[in-house]
UniProtKB/TrEMBL annotation:
The gene is truB. Belongs to the pseudouridine synthase TruB family. Type 1 subfamily. The lineage of its organism: Bacteria, Bacillati, Actinomycetota, Actinomycetes, Kitasatosporales. GO terms for biological process: mRNA pseudouridine synthesis; tRNA pseudouridine synthesis. PANTHER family: PSEUDOURIDYLATE SYNTHASE TRUB1, TRNA-PSEUDOURIDINE SYNTHASE. Gene3D superfamilies: Pseudouridine synthase, PUA domain. It comes from the Bacteria. The keyword NAD does not apply. Residues 31-187 form the Pseudouridine synthase II N-terminal domain. NCBIfam families: TruB (TIGR00431). Keywords: Isomerase, tRNA processing. Residues 188-231 form the tRNA pseudouridylate synthase B C-terminal domain. This is tRNA pseudouridine synthase B. It comes from Streptomyces mexicanus. Responsible for synthesis of pseudouridine from uracil-55 in the psi GC loop of transfer RNAs. Signal peptide: none annotated.
Length: 301
């Protein structure tokens, strides 16, 4: 009896459709790739579209490290209305005329939300509070607080300010924004806090993730395209794109794959995960400098 061919190890960069959870996309990819070994590097809200990085087979071991990289978004923030979820999926809880808010006030409020800030995630986020997902507590009507967390918003830009009228007749402002931020930053929390600072409330009405670390939208495929042709970025290429590269000779490669902790060059100290390659260009492991030696995070060779 012939065994089923195993899909190659690597990453799939998906352009997630709106209305799908990240788990929905993983489930779909399991069917397309014909393997259970599929995972994702960081969730994307159901309303949002854009870059979702999936790992197939051995590449699932990379995902936890990729999840920590910088992300980039394009979105629309509506000033003048707040919602239960801080985005357009939730019920509107207040409406305030935002037509008098000036561009100068918007820019000043955006500046306060740029750089290293403390952010309180949305109550309907997937953050765990005492072991229970925040959105589950919120759904059950529980009263609770989420502690603020440090995040970095390296860029927050407003490209356009549009006058609009909400369905209930309230004059609102729609801001077209781009955000570059650290992992764990909630864009809908930025929308909520921007509106709160301006005194009119705010929520996110559209969001598209355009980059996760080095992986961009121009390299992403829709689920329909992947159904036609499964485009998997080989694991070595994926690792070389995302992490600093350390090429070792054959002797060191052998020692590393046998579990020996190699001395690491000083240049890699404090740089986080480093991808190790042998002389043939094979990706051997993801390591981190620890007291001058290579501590293995995941072995592939």
């Amino acid at each position: 009896m012939t065994s089923k061919p195993t899909p190659p190890d690597g990453l799939v960069i998906v352009d997630k459709p709106s209305g799908f959870t990240s788990h929905d996309v993983v489930a779909k990819m399991r069917g397309i790739a014909k393997t259970r070994r599929v995972g994702h590097a960081g969730t994307l809200d159901p309303m949002a579209t854009g870059v979702l990085v999936l790992g197939v087979e051995k590449a699932t071991k990379l995902l936890g490290h990729l999840a920590l990289t910088e992300k980039e978004y394009l979105g629309t923030v509506r000033l003048g209305q707040t919602t239960v979820t801080d985005d357009a999926e939730g019920e509107i809880t207040s409406s305030t005329d935002a037509s008098k808010v000036t561009r100068e006030a918007v820019d000043a409020a955006v500046a306060k939300l740029t750089g290293d800030i403390m952010q309180v995630p949305s109550k309907v986020s997937a953050i765990k509070i005492n072991g229970v997902r925040s959105y589950k507590r919120a759904r059950e009507g529980e009263e609770f607080d989420i502690p603020a967390r440090p995040v970095t918003v390296s860029s927050f830009r407003v490209y356009d300010v549009r006058d609009a009228v909400a369905e209930d007749g309230t004059p609102v402002l729609d801001l077209v924004v781009s955000v570059v931020c650290s992992s764990g930053t909630y864009i809908r929390a930025l929308a909520r806090d921007l509106g709160a600072d301006l005194g009119v409330g705010g929520h996110l009405t559209a969001l598209r993730r355009t980059r996760v670390g080095p992986y961009r939208l121009d390299g992403a495929r829709t689920l329909d395209q992947l159904q036609q042709e499964l485009a998997i970025m080989p694991i070595a290429q994926a690792a070389a794109a995302a992490f600093p590269r350390w090429d070792v000779d054959a002797r060191r490669a052998r020692l590393l794959t046998n579990g020996v902790r190699l001395e690491m060059p000083d240049e890699y100290a404090g740089r986080g995960p480093v991808a190790v390659f042998d002389p043939e260009g094979r990706f051997l492991a993801l390591v981190e400098a620890h007291r001058g030696k290579a501590k293995s995070l995941a072995v592939f060779g």
